[in-house]
Amino acid sequence: MAQRTEDSEPLRGDDTVATRRWEVGSAIVTSVVEHQFDRIPPEFFFPDATTEAVGRHRWLVPDYADATGAISLRVQAFVIEVPGLAAVVDPCVGNGKVRALPFWHDQNWPFLERLASAGFSPDEIDLVIHTHLHADHVGWDTRRDGDAWVPTFGRARHLYTAADLEFARTSGMEGEDVFGDSIAPIIEAGLADVVAPDADLGHGLVLEPSPGHTPGHVSLWVESDGARALITGDFLHHPVQFAEPDWAEIADADVGLARETRHRMMARAAETKALVLGTHFACRPAGRVVADGDRWRFEPV
Ligand SMILES: [Zn+2]
Ligand SMILES: [Zn+2]
């Protein structure tokens, strides 16, 4: 079972606070962490994995796995600042939500406080980008106000792909209503835009379809002054998948397509030498992908 990191600040492997920044040309990307779980049995998320198999990839220790082969996973949002625009990507689980998974249910994380200490007020956010609409990627889009769920980023456009809106409407875990509490209030407030999965958002932000985990899943390229970064979303969940790209994650909707997407996106990331920002990567979520035989390895920066 996943176990919550006892003391969330400072987080393990991060000797400052729960935010970190990287420059991509003249763009700045900041990670704002909601939570991180350590010492997770890998088969909890990856049915094909074992601690022995994880343990063979020594480069995962200590940031992404411990010496026994147990893994760490983090839930974090990335904030992108480019001249004239601030965007949030995948705003985590949120507080006070009714969720089927006990470790996400009715939580009280200091995410908005961390966002503020990173220098952002929710009202300054122009754009909320979703790689997909699972519960851990849309949570902070709304916050509780009395009996209602209201938009957190009150003047931001919130972007969705049509395929994932449909998927979110028609799927989901029993005992929770992610669409009702975190997506419908955004649509009702007139803050939702449906975009193509390969949309050029301007300001050097470009979506690329990376389907399989969900039908309308996208990843985000950030391009500025010749530099490039890639925000993965959930086409992979953990750096071990660079070495084991065929390992499916428990929530992959189309396992075969997700596998194909991982191979394609990992090859692209290695070839472009992009700064890869792993949405669920623990401790040091940014790095480069390097070829390792017919597989890959992740070198954190
Ligand atoms: Zn997901
Ligand atoms: Zn996720």
Core attributes:
7-stranded mixed beta sheet; globular; 7 helices; 301 residues; 19% helix; binds zinc ion; alpha+beta; 8-stranded mixed beta sheet; disordered N terminus
Description:
- The chain has 301 residues and is an alpha+beta fold.
- It has seven helices and 17 strands.
- Strand 12 and strand 13 form a beta hairpin.
- The longest helix is centred in the C-terminal third of the chain and has 18 residues.
- The radius of gyration is 18 Å and the shape is globular.
- The chain starts with a strand and ends with a strand.
- The site of one zinc ion has 5 residues, from loops.
- One zinc ion binds next to helix 3.
Task: Produce the secondary structure layout.
Blueprint: E1 3-4, E2 19-24, E3 27-40, H1 51-55, E4 71-82, E5 85-89, H2 111-117, E6 127-129, H3 135-138, E7 142-145, E8 148-151, E9 157-160, H4 162-170, H5 178-188, E10 192-194, E11 200-202, E12 205-209, E13 218-224, E14 227-231, H6 240-243, H7 255-272, E15 275-277, E16 286-292, E17 295-300
Parallel strand pairs: 5-6, 6-9, 9-10, 14-15
Antiparallel strand pairs: 1-3, 2-3, 3-4, 4-5, 7-8, 11-12, 12-13, 13-14, 15-16, 16-17
The protein binds zinc ion (2 copies).
Report a brief summary of the structure.
With 301 residues, the protein is of the alpha+beta class.
